[in-house]
Amino acid sequence: MTKIQSIESEQLQERFGRAVGRRLSAGTAELPYHVSERLRAARMQAVAKRKVEATAPIVVAGGGSAALAFGRFGWFRQIASVLPLVVLAGGLVLIHSVQNDRRATEVAEVDAQLLTDDLPPAAYADPGFVQFLKSGH
Questions:
Q1: pTM score, whole prediction
Q2: Using an 8 Å Cβ cutoff, are 57 and 68 in contact?
Q3: Are 28 and 37 in contact (CB under 8 A)?
Q4: For every residue of the chain, which 3-state class applies, written as one string?
Q5: Where are the domains of the chain?
Q6: Could you tell me the sign of the dihedral formed by the alpha carbons of 86, 89, 93, 98, in that order?
Q7: Which residue ranges of the chain lie beneath pLDDT 50?
C-alpha cells in the first residue's frame, strides 16, 4: 500500500466515523438527561482511546513482499526465521537415526533366533516347510 493510498484510507475512515457519529447524535434530543450524559461520556472515552496510538510492529515492503520489522531487533527476525528450519532438520536427522537403530536391532534379533534355533536356516527356504507349518504338524 502506498502512502497516498494509506492517506486516502484514513480519510475515508474519518468520514465514515463522522457520519456514524452524526447518525448516533441525531436522536439524542429526546433522550432523558442521564442517558445523554452517559452517551456523551462514552463518546469522550472512545475519542480518547482513538487518539492513543498503539505501538505495533512496522510493516516493511521490500522486493515484492511485506515483512514485520521489529525496530532495532532486525537480527532477531533473521534468527527467528532460520530457527524453525534448523529444528526441523535436527528432528529429521534424529528420526532417521532412531529408525536405523531399531531396524538394526530387529534384524539382529531375527538373526539370533535363526542361528540359535534347532532347525537349520536352509529349512526356512524349503517350500515344503511352509506346507508343513500350514498343515499344523
A1: 0.36
A2: yes
A3: no
A4: CCHHHHHHHHHHHHHHHHHHHHHHHCCHHHCCHHHHHHHHHHHHHHHHHHHCCCCCCEEEEECCEEEEECCCCHHHHHHHHHHHHHHHHHHHHHHHHHHHHHHHHHHHHHHHHHHHCCCCHHHHHCHHHHHHHHHCC
A5: 3-54, 71-137
A6: positive
A7: 54-55
